[in-house]
Amino acid sequence: MASVNLLSTQGLSRNFGGLKAVSEVDFDLPEGQVRALIGPNGAGKTTFVGMLCGRISASAGRVSFLGEDVTTLPAHKRIARGMAYTFQITSIFGKLSLRENVALAVRRRLGRDAGQVTAEVETSLSRVGLLDRVDQIADDLSYGHQRLLEIAMGLGQKPKLLILDEPTQGLADSEIEEFKSLIRSMAGQTTVLLIEHNMNVVMEMADVITVLNFGEVLAEGTPEEIHNNADVQSAYLGTG
Amino acid sequence: MSDVRKSLVLHGGLIALLLVLHFILPDYHHGNLARVMVLAVYAMGYNVLFGYTGLLSLGHAMFFAAGMYGMGLTIQHLGFSAEAALVAGVLAAFVLSTVVGFLALRTTGVAFMIVTLMFAQTGYLTILYFGEWTRGDEGFVIQKASRVIAGFDVSDPGNRYLAALVLFAVCMAVILKLVQAPFGRVLIAIRENEERARMLGYDVFRHKLAAIIISGTMSGAAGAFYGLLFGYAGASFASVQYSIFPLLWVLLGGAGTVTGPLVGALFMFYLIDITSGLTSAYMLFAGIALVLLTVFARQGMVGEIRRRLAPWLP
Amino acid sequence: MDFGPYLLLASLEGAVQSAVLALMAVGLSLVFGIMRVVNVAHGEFFMLGAVLAWWVTTFVGLHPAVGFLIALVVAPVCAGLIAAAADLTVLKRLKYDPESTIVATIGMLYIIQQVVLMTYGPDARPVEAPFSHRFYTPWFGYSTYKLFVIGMAVVLLLGIWALMAKTRIGLILRATQLDREMAQAFGIPVERVYALVFGLGAALAAMAAVLIVPIQQAHYLMGGDPLLLSFIVVIIGGLGSLTGTVVAAVLIGMSDGIISIFFTPTLAKILATLLVAFVLIFRPNGLFGKRSS
């Protein structure tokens, strides 16, 4: 596997008034990797990821994506360059059909060609197991299915980097299993960055885990290394 | 029949119906319908911004008036031909909507509503301020001799109706194309969930700006044509009331539908026509309609039809 | 008259404007601050106050002061009740969604205005002041009633401040403003609070009108300009800040008089509307506002 860095940050920081939410984080994400970002509540994970995709501006530091500095690039332009993002609290187009939800994600790339769009929509939905509901209204889905729809929208963008913010939260066990095989099917083609609390999923799926605590990188390594890391254990146990 | 086919049949049929009515309507209703068609274009313009993009402007009269005065003043003071004056009117509205767009889009929600209202009020007051040229509230008549488009004298009711119909048909076709194209779909996405649209990679600001410009320009075209076809330009068309009307028409007919604006404009026109014969306080009915619509029928007439019977309606 | 006395006269006139404007703007500001809705019909409640004052004083027919005193109570109470009813029947149903509320209040604007047109008619009618004393400075005579207006406004504003800062009701109002859900969790009947606030806002507008109507006249279209001015005051002072509202009202009321020396009314209005727009665009928190609109 080529270890070209798809995404990296240098000294990335974010302050909210006096509070240092994220502090001097250096982060490198090689292409094709499945990376998990974990840490206790309030560790700064969502803020960090917000700065990666451009929803939150950085107080200091740099973000590079595909070899270019994107620190000041607005969110929509980063997405257009190949990032896809799913929200911690599912954000979809509730009043529109599943078809239209995914079509909107697909059209930015494929625009004019209605036939291609339809094909892509159906592929994405079938990958998350929602093809049979393609013409339903998104609001009518269960919460778990809505989260899967959001992932389908991410897939439909054929992103180079898929950022998933707590994707398994609210999913039933069977849905989590399907989610795991979905991630496995992407191995090598799409780089995935997961924020996760579900340790099962993290240990099984991640190639590398980065642990954040109090806005700083506490540890980084393979699942086994992190599992045995005393600092990590106390960070989690300490904050309960 | 595919949805696209159904849509073509419906909208084509509507134009055909309006054409047939040209030959069979008695004079009074014939004149009214000509008016309604032009006002419906104003409403359709408003609908692009409100119904499809979800931005509620309380100042669209400024665009309507920009078109009307751009047309009227160039004929009156610069001796433009009717065709050139119409272009001037549309251009004036285009420029105004671009400027207003850049400024007003820095705000959202309630602030946006107030900012658009304030800009429109400024426009109205400016027309009064320069009363020397605009004749203020009194307005001015566009001479019959000037009201000739491409050889057709539009002061003649027959020509006038057909001119209105052409304007309406063209604008409706534009709207239909727009809302079914990817661009229109993104506007709807922005209305439904702006943040999500942004995080799918769409430049939300540029889309909103384009929506305001299209909306304002179409409203301006309606204003320019209204002034030319009915031979009068006056400050009342720049007043708050004329900003409230398209909101009312679109809400009543169905925001976010193509035919809704025409339905709403037609209904409200006749409601006011009938009630103003009974009392000078006919705006009471507009007020009641607004309250009832917001509480009970946000979807409007065509919107309800779409919701219950015909989801394919654009 | 020399410039000095002229300025004094203009200042007195400005103070009267400020007084009435402050009352009206505080009403609008309370509603926005606590309920987070914009009441576009606010100017019509003002007008309603003036028209009701005319009805009452005409009906009572005794010494003008008696009629006036009664109007001072009846008009705000009526306006307040009508507003509260409108809140309970319409705004509550809309769940106080900001955009829907504005549209609904536009509808209310037309309903109130046109009903008055149908019953009171299109004419402007005067209301006699409760007393017609004049006091004399070395340079000019001035209506004592106008001083009374200023005094009343100050008293009422102090009363509102006391209500908000010192009473239990004020505490409830402030709690609801800060965090609606928490207030509900503590057993505060938020919906009734909202009806009270909406009513109070309208009552203040009506009160302002009763005070000013002996100086102006009562006319069914008199709500438009005060509405615009109140908007300007509230936005510049900062939506949700009562102190800011009062300060802005004084600023604008005073400068209105001075500005009309230099600019025609139309030009002054143009500048004022543009000012509101640009403040909202570039300084959305106004001068004192705590929250962005």
SSE map:
The complex is a heterotrimer of chains A (240), B (314) and C (293).
Chain A: E1 5-16, E2 19-30, E3 34-38, H1 45-53, E4 60-65, E5 68-69, H2 75-81, E6 83-86, H3 98-110, H4 114-127, H5 143-156, E7 161-165, H6 173-186, E8 191-195, H7 199-205, E9 208-213, E10 216-221, H8 223-228, H9 230-239
Parallel strand pairs in A: 3-8, 3-9, 6-7, 7-8
Antiparallel strand pairs in A: 1-2, 1-4, 4-5, 9-10
Chain B: H1 3-24, H2 27-52, H3 61-78, H4 82-104, H5 109-129, H6 131-134, E1 140-141, E2 148-149, E3 152-153, H7 157-180, H8 182-192, H9 194-198, H10 204-230, E4 232-233, H11 240-253, H12 260-275, H13 283-296, H14 300-308
Chain C: H1 3-35, H2 42-60, H3 64-91, H4 98-120, E1 134-136, E2 141-143, H5 144-166, H6 168-178, H7 180-185, H8 190-212, H9 224-237, H10 242-262, H11 265-282
Give the oligomeric state: heterotrimer
Q: Tell me the radius of gyration of chain C.
A: 19 Å
Distance between the termini of chain B: 15 Å
Task: Work out the count of structural domains of chain B.
Answer: 1
Q: What is the strand content of chain B?
A: under 5%
The Rg value of chain B, from CA coordinates, equals: 19 Å
Span from first to last CA of chain C? 45 Å
Mean pLDDT of chain B: 93
- Pick out the low-confidence regions of chain B: none
Which protein chains make the most extensive interface, counting residues with beta carbons within 8 Å of the other chain's beta carbons? B-C, 38 and 39 residues
